[in-house]
TrEMBL record:
Organism for this UniProt entry: Rhipicephalus microplus (Cattle tick)
InterPro entries per record: GDPGP, GDPGP1_N
Alphabetical list of Pfam families matching this protein: GDPGP1_N (PF26217)
Protein's recorded name: GDPGP1-like N-terminal domain-containing protein
Record GO biological process: glucose metabolic process
MF terms in GO: GDP-D-glucose phosphorylase activity; guanyl-nucleotide exchange factor activity; hydrolase activity; nucleotide binding
Sequence ranges assigned to domain GDPGP1-like N-terminal in this UniProt record: 28-192
Domain of life: Eukaryota
Length: 223
């Protein structure tokens, strides 16, 4: 059976309660992501097969997770030359509009929002051809709008939506900027499943206002 290429969700699909010690029943989003990603891996659309990774929890207060992934070190797309964390999009070099059709898993749309239905407004989940973990994919906000790798309020909202669509405590979503090891200057987030608890999940916070908190017990500052 051919899987859908568009995932339409409503606010009612959001999962707010996730048990840290176990797996909840997979949501429609989890099922689609895993099925499409497994299909792409079986079909050979990645640059290498993701084997079981040698993983260690580093000693110390924060217990950082370290993984040995030699294939990614040797078989990844060459990072683009970066001179600033804010650089204009350059359509003449590699970007996600140049992906092969089989590298594009599905688009995302919130049915509760009145969005522009044009192609430029479509958010996409695409494979990371050099995966770091199971289901490692890229969430590309407004893919055909050709946005640079800079966070926007809309993209942060989309990222939060995407996290809430999964019932798995292992589902992760992250952003790295230009100068922070992002290899492509085309707006994207990384997402994948990591079966290890992270210190930041329970790090101390200070309440600022409303539902905004400041992380106070972690090497990197954040909210």
């Amino acid at each position: 059976m051919k899987l859908p290429n568009r995932f339409v969700y409503k606010d009612a699909d959001f999962v707010y309660d996730v048990a840290p010690g176990g797996e909840g029943r997979p949501t429609r989003f989890d099922q689609l992501l895993q099925s499409k990603w497994d299909e792409a891996m079986t079909s050979g659309h990645f640059w290498y097969k993701l084997d079981k990774l040698d993983t260690r929890m580093l000693a110390g207060k924060y217990g950082f997770v370290a993984q040995l992934n030699t294939k990614r070190a040797n078989e990844r797309r060459k990072p683009q030359h970066v001179t600033s964390v804010c650089m204009p999009f350059d359509g003449s070099i590699f970007n996600f509009t140049k992906l092969k059709e089989e590298e594009m898993l599905f688009s995302l749309k919130n049915a509760n929002k009145v969005d522009n239905s044009e192609k430029e407004a479509e958010h996409w989940v695409v494979i990371n051809v050099s995966p770091v973990e199971y289901c490692n994919s890229l969430l590309v906000p407004r893919l055909y709008s050709c946005l640079p790798q800079v966070l926007t309020p809309e993209s942060v909202h989309l990222a939060i939506d995407t996290v809430l669509l999964s019932s798995s405590p292992n589902f992760r979503l992250g952003f790295n900027s230009l100068g922070g090891h992002a290899s492509v200057n085309h707006h994207h987030f990384h997402l994948y499943y990591l079966q290890h608890r992270l210190y930041i999940e329970t790090a101390r916070v200070n309440h600022l206002w409303s539902e905004c908190y400041e992380i106070v017990d972690y090497p990197a500052k954040g909210f």
